[in-house]
C-alpha cells in the first residue's frame, strides 16, 4: 500500500505544474498573484492582453494586444525585487528563484491614463513552474538533439524538479516541526505558570481564612 502511495506521489510530481486563467484589469490597476516555488527553479509566465470592443466583447488575435503593454514586477519571499520590466501586449516572462517560498507576481498595464482609470482589458495568464515551462521543440532544434536525446533531457529536467520539490518540502516540514515544538514548549510553560498562580492564590486564600478565624477566635 505504501508503495502505491509513493508511486502516486512521484507521478503527481512529474506532472507539469501549470496554472492558467484570465482576468479583467483596468489600465490603472495592479493585479498580484502568489506562487509558492522551491529555490533554484525556473518560472515561466505566458500572457496575452485583449482590448475591449465597442460591443463589450474583446478583440482576438495580435490586433487585440496592439497599443498596450504589460508591466511585470516580481518579489521573492524576503521582499527583494527579482524582476521589474515592461513587456509587449503578448509574450512571456521568465525568472529563476533563489529563495524558496511565496513569490509575488504583480501585473499591470504600462498605460499612463492613471486619472481616468482607463479601459478594462482582459489578460490571459498561464504560469508554469519548473521544467513544465521548457519548450522542448525549440531545445531540440537549437541543440540538434535526436528524439531520444530530447526525451532523456526532459526526464533529467523532471528529476531535478522532483529533487528540488522534495528538498523544499523537507525544509517546510522542518520549519513546521520547529514551530510545533516551540508552541508545545510555550503551552507547557503557560500551564506550569497557571498551576503556580493557582497554588499561590489558594495559599493566600487559606492564609486569609486562617487569619479571619483566628481574629474571630473560632480556632
Describe the protein.
The structure is a single chain. The strands form two sheets. The chain has a four-stranded antiparallel β-sheet, with no helix packed on it. By secondary structure, it is an alpha+beta fold. It has three helices and eight strands. It starts with a helix and ends with a helix.
Query: What structural category do the secondary elements indicate?
Result: alpha+beta
**Main beta sheet:** 4 strands, antiparallel
Radius of gyration: 29 Å
Strand order of the largest sheet: 1-8-3-6
* Uncertain stretches of 5 or more adjacent residues: 1-16
Strand residue content: 25-35%
Shape: elongated
Relevant terms:
219 residues; alpha+beta; 4-stranded antiparallel beta sheet; 3 helices; 8 strands; 41% helix; elongated
Q: What does the secondary structure layout of this molecule look like, with pairings?
A:
Blueprint: H1 2-14, E1 17-26, E2 30-37, E3 42-50, E4 70-75, E5 81-87, E6 90-96, E7 101-109, E8 120-129, H2 136-143, H3 147-215
Antiparallel strand pairs: 1-8, 2-7, 3-6, 3-8, 4-5, 4-7
